[in-house]
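Appendix B, Record 12. Input sequence as logged:
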Amino acid sequence: MLNNPHSPATAPDAPVRRSYLFVPGARPDRFAKALAAGADAVIIDLEDAVAPADKDGARTAVCSFLRERAAESGPAVFVRTNSLRSRTGMLDILALTDGAAPGWAGLLLPKVDGAEDVRLAAGLLDERGLPGTLGALIESADGLEHAMAIAAASPRLSFLMFGGADLSAELRVPLAWEPLLHARSRVVHAASRFGLDALDMPWIALDDEEGYRRELARSVLHGFTARSAIHPKQIAAIHDAYTPPAEAVIQAGRVLAAFEAAGGGVCTLDGKLVERPLVQGSHRILALARRAGML
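Logged structural output:
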């Protein structure tokens, strides 16, 4: 399954992230609150959450904030730039890479239609000798068509994100689960083929908690490894959805113990075959359990 063994998401020490909280880049007064909200990662948004007249000011504020927190710990911070096929997006990434120690974990690239967008961002990071991973937002018919090529574009790529709002408009379907199921599945398929995380879109009906939990269960069932959020109150439900039941954690431990006892070869446990795909799944269950504080 892991055809891109150098992907950050496949590394043994790759972080497990269940939740990504968006915060507007034009609201620096909210940055600290977002970082303290309990999400595994925060995405400071310079694109949709910032009005055109405020782009330059938001970029300056975000760069200043990140320089000041470069040595701090806490949740991973990503910055969603504007499209790299726009002047504003190029100004974003040039400003964000203008330093030796950026205070972010990586960049989320919006409106990625093809592999060249990812390669351009990766090349700029390489040129500056900077660390950082990339996320690619799939939110167009072109992006959906080229999802596999995008997923394979760079070893720096760590996750694909499904962008349902823009995609539903382009596909001329309602913003609902059923009309977008095929599109979601293509994103999950591409991400899983290359060992990347798959991030589902935010839930926008903030007051429909029951509907939110139902859709979270669907996200997990269909292979998404994380969910984005637009409000701190959504984080607890995301973490609940991605916390494995205790019996699954126990069984995962038994699987890995049996596999190790067999010297890393095929073996049986409770009359069932233990092979590498089951071992990989067990590793993820235990990683989620550790993230949830169960171990």
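The CA atoms of residues 48 and 284 lie 33 Å apart.
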